[in-house]
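Q: I'm teaching a short session on how sequence maps to structure, and I want students to see two examples side by side rather than one. Could you give me a first protein with its sequence written out and its structure tokens following it? Keep the formatting plain so it prints cleanly on a handout.
A: Of course. Example one:
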Amino acid sequence: MAFAGALAAISAGPASAQAPAASPAPAPVARNDYTDPATWLCRPGRADACAVNLDATVIAADGTMTHEAFKADPNAPIDCFYVYPTVSNDPGFNSTMAVEFEERNVVLHQFARFAAKCRLYAPMYRQVTLTALRARMMGKPMQGDATIGYNDVLDAWNEYLAHDNHGRGVVLIGHSQGSGVLTSLIAREIDGKPVQAKVISAILMGTSLQVPKGADVGGSFKTIPLCHSSSQLGCVIAFASFRADSPPPPNSRFGQPRGDTVAACVNPAALGGGSGWLNSYLANGSIAGAASAPAPAWTNPPQPVNTTFVEVPGLLSAQCVADEHGDYLAITLHPTPGGARTNQIAGDVVVGTVILKDWGLHLIDANLTIGNLLDVVGDETKAYQGKR
């Protein structure tokens, strides 16, 4: 998930604007057939990327460890539609449609756990790759077309609506490039249109969704407000997380205003405002495939932990902050002096030994908040069923 917030940098302008004026028009790109099961990472009732072991170890402040088994809901009453962030290491500007480790791994960390609340739909799409991002950051941008990935997601969304939705409510979930694609999809295809009534909420992580200062609607979306309670329907949760003691620097990709608008921040742990405790599912070990330092030992002295995820209740809280650094989700650690459990977390973007502070805790936006988001989706589902 390293450098997953590249969409804004990569697609700051049309790809054609970077090509010489005399370059021929690119050949039309064939559309994907989303009736083909191979074009989906996750669909209900399959042994696919979302059918994974999600058990966790809960570690209390005194070092006591408890096993928490994960259980999906085979009769979930709503759907979740997910667009993953920039993860592909394919060599071109756009990724292929092959399901590789990177796509399976990000689904494990960001989406599969939503099976406790909804039926899961996650299309593959020809995203802008990490290869293209790295090339641009080195001042050697690759030529390509960022609209290919958007068109893929649009086709998958339309296929889902036509043949899978059957009138069910749906939660849209994205991170980073996925959030950018979903922001465009919502603005063009959902906002103010009849299908909006089916959208229970949109969860847009690791992004800078824009709203007028002091307002919750009117920037990126015209009729879809920010969420203020877990019973509110048709709203959006958007945020980008930073350590409270390492706020966004001026060059940050997240949390910054754009003209007359500011970056939206909705705290999944306290939708109504203020601070709230995080119910995090942190990676046990390094975030595979990402430029992050490995997690510290979870206990002192170290004890073996044999689950993919770890919960650390009472260690982390979050609060939306608006200050001279921007608008962002500030993550605060609450250490236990001399405690038997770790007082640290991993998740910063690291290149060599240098922490890239402009990325904040982008790599673990979802891990930090997913337990809280599951609670919100559960409450929203009840409100949606009651309304219907």
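Q: Perfect. Now a second example for contrast.
A: Example two:
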Amino acid sequence: MNIYGFLFVSIILLLKEPACCQDVNNLKLKDYHPVSIYKIPQTKIEKAKYPVIDFHSHDYPKSDKEVDEWVNTMHEVGIAKTIILSYSTGTRLDSIVMKYARYKDKFEIWCGFDYTGFYKPGWEKHAVAELERCYKKGARGVGELGDKGLGEFYSKPTPGWGLHIDDGRMLPLLKKCAELHMPVSIHVAEDAWMYLNDDSTNDGLMNAATWKVDMSKKGILDHDELVASLERAVKNNPETIFIACHFANCCSDLSKLGKLFDNYPNLYADIAARYGEIAPIPRFVHDFMEKYQDRLVYGTDMGTGKEMYRTTFHILETADEHFYNQELFNYHWPLYGLSLSDKALKKIYHDNARKIIRN
């Protein structure tokens, strides 16, 4: 063996160095990938128990071929329909509608709000006109709106920095949504870990550091202020249906969302991209989701992969214990199945979504 072959083999052996040989005093948290040692049953879920409507996805495919592949995946895992939250208006929205036109039974497209010139008098007339145009083009809802403290920045091509969902200037748009029966999907705040110090006391440290909210920015609203802004909008627009994304980012204290559900029948929430946050506390979350099974809808917000969908079904449907998935969830805690009842699964997977979209 020559020197190059020797070096190659040495590198391979180093890369395969077993965990027992690592120096734990120098092990970084980002490199810590625990594997469960428990010899306990684990369930393999290939397809959802009931047909599913994914109420929170986005325009991931870059080509017609990728759209076709997504449809095949949906069929294989049991996704009957996917809501594409496009954020978009204008020609961008039009192109997204066209992309999925071949599969109108499989996809529903939602638009954004056009915030162009929102700081000028009379802006609302233009924005309402564009909303009506988007509806005629095929959009059947609005979203995902997004406010992490500085305003509605998700919409494309023009963000609404400084404009919150409870602003009086939003009233004509939200009223028009009610008239057209266009539900509004909105992301407010982030979960509590993202506001805590990124230090050794934060049990969601790696994910929290990635999505940390910088509260030093001038004029930024904190978590509770953003949830309050959503509540005011829901209260002031009782004929408009709202879907709070990601459990309204109240995973660490679901009682806050429960109080909103108790007070406002026009509010729903999706469970998208928060499986890693709810699976560590399965008994509490099971009881919450059973209690509010009429107000929750399934969602993903994590791409189009088969194993992604199957992981969500694994968490919702089974009673499996102490398993990890750090490829999807950037946490170091183990996950547990929620073992939801058939009645709750049917509603969260499908029935509640049908009530909202009426088709």
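Q: What should students look for in example two?
A: Point them to this: Residues 270 and 297 are 5 Å apart (CA to CA). Also worth mentioning: Residues 1-19 have pLDDT under 50 and may be disordered.
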